[in-house]
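the two lines:
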Amino acid sequence: EDQVTQSPEALRLQEGESSSLNCSYTVSGLRGLFWYRQDPGKGPEFLFTLYSAGEEKEKERLKATLTKKESFLHITAPKPEDSATYLCAALDYGGSQGNLIFGKGTKLSVKP
Amino acid sequence: GAGVSQSPSNKVTEKGKDVELRCDPISGHTALYWYRQSLGQGLEFLIYFQGNSAPDKSGLPSDRFSAERTGGSVSTLTIQRTQQEDSAVYLCASSPIAGVNEQYFGPGTRLTVT
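prediction for all of em together
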């Protein structure tokens, strides 16, 4: 069964304390791996798409990487405004073209 | 430009009543998706539309759920005879084409069934 698992469920960091969020996926054939940010009461906001192992993408303090089994979202020197829930999703070759399989998310809190 | 919009933002209904949720996708986007997000759960795919093709309904949880997309633009998700377990945030997303392109989400409709 296709599955996306994110860890940890929650992460508390001090401002400036770098860390990584993990997303492991089990799909028959990965078409794309997506990262989203979701603030309370809002819809997910697109961050990155990764297509093949070894690919990396960066945006401000965030960098996403992809291996054959997992993806990492690295947060460098986070600020309080980076506090949000980060969602990972996989699109499978074998599934519906619209069927993004989402993990349950990692809730990140950054304290000043 | 304008993003995906959804209405209403909040809906409280009594068990057994029907509800309609509306989604206006980004202009020019041909693919439209509905998801459901329950407390403590990941987003659950419900249905997607691509152009004039038949929709993929594989994620609809029961025959009480249906959706239509008129003129390739606005979509309505209808839940008949609502149950308490239908309480969730219903999210709509659109993308230029289905597949690997990123999906842009609306703010969601929070449905509460009492």
